[in-house]
Here is the input.
Amino acid sequence: MTTINVRFAPSPTGKLHVGNIRLALINWLFAKKQDGYFILRIDDTDCERSSSEYEKMIIQDLMWLGLTWDFKFNQSERIKIYDQAIEKLKITGRLYPCYETPEELKYKRKHQLAKGTPPIYDREALTINNETRKTFESEGRKPHWRFKLKDEEISWNDLCRGFCRYHVSNLSDPILIRADGSLLYTLPSVVDDSELNITHVIRGEDHVTNTATQIQIFLALGTTIPQFAHLPLLTDDSNQVLSKRLNSFSISELRTSGIDAMALTSLLSKLGTSDSIQPHQSLIELISEFNIEKFSRATPKFNFAELKHLNSSLLHEMSFEQAKPRIKNIGICCTEEFWIAIRNNLSQLNTVKDWWYICYKEITPIITNLSFTKMAAELLPQEPWVTTTIWNDWIAILQQTTGYKGRNLFHPLRLALTGCKSGPGMKALLPIIGRSRAVARLNGNFA
Here is the structure.
């Protein structure tokens, strides 16, 4: 049985966004469902734009989501391996130098479009002689290198799009090496997929055309061609494709805003399928439900309001054991009693800190009727409070003593005890706040 190997290949040139992570998650689930391997490849051959800081953020984002990898490598460490593939393509005549300047290429494209012909490279570089080449080099021109496509139809069975075909007569010979010697994405990707025995390349549909080119490079290098799956790209509510340049819902910002990792993965694993979107407490649950054949060709939309709603539902169902390490990560140590008391009032995890301060630290109480709250403080039963009905017992005494009912009774007490107009049920909060703190707040003191 063939071992499944997939890869996620981000470039450290910007923050990961939900569109990137959706593809990482789908690759990860696909591998784990079949006891395969998930490989992290850092595409950092673009030295000018790549950043170690962005690479660190990529690592942090994946670790936060639980998308751990079985193997990681950087393309910048494998240049010698790519050079070997380059030499092979040069020897076989599939890689050839081109001396046109960017301005000349732009003029050619403009001229072709004006004539109503597709802007496909005319292979003029293949017709120049050695004398012309020497002239260009004496002028200081350095060549970029193109891969010579064979004039044939390329086809493959795509796991998402079905049978795909492209005739290379509709494609330009792709540039694999820039004039400055740096490598573009295409060749290193093929070499890595070959050497690491990648069995499935699962990526966005914006790479469909690249696939026809890459299949020819696989064949030219004499290596095994992986299976491909091209999924529709994620868009926002305005149908705009998410991108790094637009800083579209970056993972780091979602993380710091209090969105739970499982809320995000619960949503992204189902977008584009007919499965209902429900909160899941672990990636194990998502693995058991995953099937790549469920993804349709319809464009999925990412809605932040839907994510927030899912996040709330997840927190409301979360046990203390599940919540404890998450709460610890934001610098809070709390009891199960506290978590059960406040979880149904949370929409984002970081608001736990707000209620922790309200329950255990000093606040400024809001007093709307001082004579009433002072009386309430005098009538508050003495500790120890051995019963969970202390709030109801106290309210019954106050109602009988003052004749207050409903909002006139409850609202001044909540404002004094929490400094908030709304929040978790006071039946659960009062025992956590404690008698001494409650009495001080009811008397209008900072406590």
